[in-house]
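step=encode ok
step=design start
structure_in=
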């Protein structure tokens, strides 16, 4: 797993290489990080740390802007409309490029041609955790308990296209469980 220093150094080097690449034009004075979640989320905090370090490294203004919605869908659509001059960088989860083509029948952008991955960013581990008093020791027992009493099988997820949501969908396909999505809240009931 990358530490903050490695992430900032790698991102600065990548942006620097883009500046000296095939196009000899200079980069705009302001670099804008597009964040796909609202302020206060863990991705926002990481983006702000990186932006703070990069402003000194790149000797440029670095701003953080928010384009929340659809776990990156809104931000990706916005990024496609910007000039490809190196002034915009999007911080987004893996779902944008890896999952969206499978989750949406039609996208207004092509993740393979309209977005270019710059560097591997941050890995935030996920865990299925239960109360110690539940008697559940593994995933199979959790699925069995959820099937026996669906009210005891809630799984919260940050969005319908997150890794957690896909995990729940996979669990829902298991013969031991069913999964019902709640469209009004950002969670699912398995």
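sequence_out=
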């Amino acid at each position: 797993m990358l530490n903050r220093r490695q992430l900032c150094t790698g991102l600065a080097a990548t942006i620097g290489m883009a500046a000296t690449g095939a196009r000899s034009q200079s980069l705009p004075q302001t670099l804008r990080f597009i964040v796909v979640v609202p302020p206060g989320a863990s991705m926002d905090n990481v983006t702000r740390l990186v932006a703070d370090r990069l402003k000194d490294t790149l000797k440029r203004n670095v701003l953080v802007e928010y384009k929340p919605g659809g776990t990156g869908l809104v931000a990706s659509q916005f990024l496609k409309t910007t000039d490809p001059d190196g002034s915009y960088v999007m911080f987004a989860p893996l779902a944008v490029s890896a999952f969206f083509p499978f989750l949406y029948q039609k996208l207004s952008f092509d993740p393979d041609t309209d977005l270019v991955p710059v560097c591997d960013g941050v890995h935030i581990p996920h865990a299925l955790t239960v109360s110690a008093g539940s008697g559940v020791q593994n995933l199979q027992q959790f699925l069995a308990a959820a099937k026996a009493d669906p009210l005891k099988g809630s799984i919260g997820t940050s969005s319908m296209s997150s890794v957690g949501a896909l995990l729940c969908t996979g669990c829902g396909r298991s013969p031991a469980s069913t999964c019902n999505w709640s469209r009004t809240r950002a969670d699912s009931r398995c």
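step=design ok
step=annotate ok -> The first helix runs from residue 4 to 19.
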